[in-house]
Amino acid sequence: MKRFLIAGNWKMNKTSAQAVHYVKELKAQNLERPEDVAIIAPFTQLEPLKKALEGTGIALGAQNVHYEHSGAFTGEISVDMLKEIGVDYCVVGHSERRQYFGETDATVNKKLKVLLEEGITPILCVGESLETREKKQEQAFVCGQLAAAFEGISLEDAAKVVIAYEPIWAIGTGHTATPEQAEEMCSFIRGMMEGLYDISIGEKLLIQYGGSMKPGNAKDLLSKKDINGGLIGGASLKVKDFAEIAHIAAELAE
Ligand code: 13P
């Protein structure tokens, strides 16, 4: 049976009241495999969402974390704070955070470590810019991001990390990577992780694709061998579209 994780990254959208309403509507969609679904929400919505999602089987995730447990880091949120709420996942190294908020390969590595230590599953984002792809350097680029992110992390821990391949040129642009382009990179990532660690890690890893995934293209993308789900931005904001993608994954999982 193929494994999937369909995660909706809401980015900086929705108020808490809207988030709770969304869950009410999502419940009415009768997801076949809620355990394969996660909502990745802004910090202020995590607590109300945790309550709203109780008993649904749907997981909850944060969009960022600081790598220190506490201290003088105004505006930041620690892993202990996330743990207290009971989040299952935390996104690390999203390209928007790398681009606008100074996230680096070094901070990504520290964040992965603190999350793994505390038992929250990281969703690690990697992906190249259009310029890098045009120079045909996308594999070397992603390879560098992965090597830096996993430095000093054991095989056992690395196998728990969800890796999301999000080509920057496909995020929010409507220009989805073709299923072939997405599969090529996800397969490359699996191979690269097998090389970095051990052949045994390949079958354990969940590798998502992200970038303009929507109901109309989800089946072709999710049918690919090395794509275990999606990290979905825009389309996850609409309950029907998000549920439709989850239905497609559930059908493919069988
Ligand atoms: P879009 O689905 O809006 O392209 O966003 C993808 C993404 O960045 C998810 O993390």
Order of helix and strand elements from N to C terminus: EHEHEHEHHEHHHEHEHEH
Overall shape: globular
State the end-to-end CA separation: 6 Å
Bound molecule kinds, no repeats: 1,3-dihydroxyacetonephosphate
* Largest sheet data: 8 strands, parallel
Task: Describe it.
Strands 7-6-5-4-3-2-1-8 form an 8-stranded parallel sheet. The mean pLDDT is 97. α1 runs parallel beside α2 and α7 crosses α9. It has 11 helices and 8 strands. The protein has helices at residues 16-27, 43-53, 79-85, 95-100, 105-117, 130-134, 138-149, 155-158, 179-196, 215-222, 239-253; strands spanning 5-9, 37-40, 59-62, 89-92, 121-126, 162-165, 206-209, 229-232. With 254 residues, the protein is of the alpha/beta class. α2 (43-53) links the parallel β2 and β3. The longest helix has 18 residues, at 179-196. 1,3-dihydroxyacetonephosphate (13P) is lined by residues 9, 94, 166, 171-172, 210-213, 231-235.
